[in-house]
């Protein structure tokens, strides 16, 4: 992860509260987390693209111990096609399912904002 741009505390969160994906202007692919060089074609002509914040659960697992008790760690595939390792919050773990629709919710932690996801009901 040595090419992560850590210049900004809220690196993955736009001022409008959207999750920022990396977008390559050369090959038009999106990637996450945003990088200075495209991981697909190695072009340095990369910018940012706001995610819709909507996705589906690709896989998940209940982890027994955390500072606040058990929590759900998951891979969520965003509508833009990239997958993100995250936590599922505001959910009953035994009611989660693969392919379940989820939406982005940023939570503030000590060092900034962290993108989590919660079940979507639309
Ligand atoms: Zn590219």
Mean pLDDT, all residues: 88
Characterize the overall form: globular
Task: Report the total helices.
Answer: 0
Please bin the fraction of helical residues. Answer: under 10%
Q: How many beta-strand runs?
A: 8
Physical arrangement of strands within the biggest beta sheet = 6-5-4-7-8
Unreliable stretches: 1-10
SSE run? EEEEEEEE
Main pleated sheet: 5 strands, antiparallel
Rg over CA atoms: 15 Å
Distance between the termini: 35 Å
| Helical/strand content category | mainly beta
Bound ligands = zinc ion
Strand composition percent = 35-45%
Comma- or semicolon-separated keywords:
122 residues; mainly beta; 5-stranded antiparallel β-sheet; 3-stranded antiparallel β-sheet; globular; binds zinc ion
Describe the structure.
- This protein starts with 19 loop residues before the first strand and ends with a strand.
- By secondary structure, it is an all-beta fold.
- The radius of gyration is 15 Å and the shape is globular.
- It is 0% helix and 43% strand.
- The N terminus is likely disordered.
- The strands form two sheets. Strands 6-5-4-7-8 form a five-stranded antiparallel sheet, with no helix packed on it. A three-stranded antiparallel sheet has the order 2-1-3, with no helix packed on it.
- It binds zinc ion.
- The site of zinc ion has 8 residues, from loops.
